[in-house]
Design a protein that fits this description.
It is built from eight helices and two strands; from the N terminus they run αβαααβαααα. By secondary structure, the protein is mainly α. α4 (58-68) packs parallel to α8 (154-175) and α6 packs antiparallel against α7 (134-143). The longest helix has 22 residues, at 154-175. It is globular.
């Protein structure tokens, strides 16, 4: 609500563009970010009520947007294969209605990469004992960058699918009626 007040004091018109991400993918990304920033999380948190649930409950997010920014928000899906040029910046520019030729795709390396499984677990264990320096975190991330990212177990995938099925269905019916489901069924890739 503070953000709404801040924006309304400064702008006569606000358009919010929000990307909704498949809940398990969002949770895996948040897990990586949390550990990178000092959390000692050795396992992916369950989708129980709380911050993790709040992040993934798109129905609740959309209802807040409807309340705070009625008619002034646009929902997009965080599905790289469906983005303009498979690039989130190009997709965002298209959503804004700006011409693509004004913007050049960045050749810069990605800076917000997920941790590899090995780096995540090493940092989580280290975070439980000490607060590593940014240089140590960067060195660990770089040293183990070539390894694959963490994946959810089949049980975790089922928990997240179950926890957010109704929420995703509501958003899909209301805002993406042309889709049979909000996210492809292969979202939240998991271990066998």
């Amino acid at each position: 609500e503070a953000l709404v007040a801040f924006l309304r004091e400064r702008f006569h018109r606000v358009q919010v563009i929000i990307y909704l991400r498949e809940p398990l993918d969002a949770a895996l990304s948040l897990w990586s970010t949390a550990v990178r920033n000092g959390a000692p999380l050795l396992v992916l948190p369950s989708p129980q009520p709380g911050y993790w649930h709040h992040l993934c409950d798109h129905c609740s997010t959309v209802k807040r947007l409807e309340h705070w920014f009625p008619g002034a928000f646009l929902l997009r899906l965080y599905l790289p294969s469906e983005w303009k040029y498979c690039d989130v910046v190009s997709d965002f520019i298209e959503a804004l209605g700006l011409p693509q030729y004004l913007f050049q795709p960045a050749d810069a390396p990605r800076v917000n990469r997920s941790l590899s499984w090995l780096a995540l677990h090493m940092l989580a264990r280290l975070n439980a004992r000490v607060k590593p320096s940014r240089q140590h975190v960067a060195a660990i991330c770089e040293a183990f960058d070539r390894y694959p990212p963490p994946r959810a177990t089949r049980e975790q995938k089922l928990q997240y699918d179950s926890a957010f099925h109704e929420s995703n269905d509501w958003v899909c019916r209301k805002y993406f009626p042309e889709r049979s489901q909000l996210f492809p069924s292969n979202g939240g890739d998991c271990e066998d």
